[in-house]
Design goal:
alpha/beta, Rossmann fold, Alpha-Beta Plaits, 6-stranded parallel β-sheet, 9 helices, 11 strands, 36% helix, elongated
């Protein structure tokens, strides 16, 4: 895929580097010349320019990218103008980093297909992990619905999923099991799968239901 990352702060730089290492074509843009020079090591093309310039964006062929990510840090006006111009140029998918809820509403109104809040989302994920000793990872899907990696409660050890009956008891579905012994991932385990103390369960359901499951004593 072809990606463009506009803004080479910490978030933008890590994103560009990861996409590039995964084998994608990555164009990076920033008006800080030093950051652009550094980004040449982890991008297909690094351009020194002000992204709040519609003609320059068009000349660069930004409209041909599959995804454009706008991550301009504290520069709210520049991010708004950049998203507006990307939308006007016909970019299909525009992801924009928001500094606040109001900033996010503006970005959505002018054409961002997705608004991201990295600091807020990371804080929520961390709080979810810290609030329960069983939760290893947390991925929100919708309001009050998430996928979580959990350590199975002691009461689950040695029992079959059929006998635990988590779907009916808690309205929680086990969608995968990450086994440590042996090291493998079992996607949609069968009803006869026996839970071991070395397993990690990937479960999906309402957050209150998952929390109740984690607190299970029997």
């Amino acid at each position: 895929m072809r990606f463009a990352v506009i803004g080479l702060g910490s978030f933008g730089s890590y994103l560009a580097r990861t996409l590039y290492e995964k084998g994608h074509e990555v164009l990076v843009i920033d008006k800080d010349k030093d950051k652009v020079e550094e980004a040449k090591d982890f991008s297909s093309q690094a351009v020194w320019m002000d992204s709040a310039d519609k003609d320059s964006l068009q000349a660069l062929g930004i409209q041909d990218m599959d995804v454009v990510v706008v991550s301009l840090g504290p520069e709210m006006e520049s991010s708004i103008l950049t998203v507006l111009y990307l939308h006007e140029l016909g970019v299909n998918r525009i992801l924009a980093k928001a500094l606040s809820a109001d900033h996010g509403k503006i970005l959505e109104a002018i054409g961002a297909t997705e608004v991201i809040y990295p600091e807020r989302d990371m804080a929520v994920r961390l709080a979810q992990r810290l609030s329960s000793r069983n939760v290893l990872e947390y991925l929100p899907l919708a309001e009050n619905i998430s996928i979580q990696e959990i350590v199975p409660p002691e009461a689950f050890i040695g029992k079959k999923l059929r006998d635990l009956d988590l779907t009916n008891r808690y309205r929680v579905q086990v969608i995968a099991v990450r086994q440590l012994v042996p090291d493998q991932l079992i996607f949609i385990p069968g009803a006869d799968f026996v839970v071991k103390d070395s397993d990690v369960l990937l479960v999906m359901g309402e957050e209150e239901s998952i929390a109740e499951l984690c607190a299970c004593k029997k």
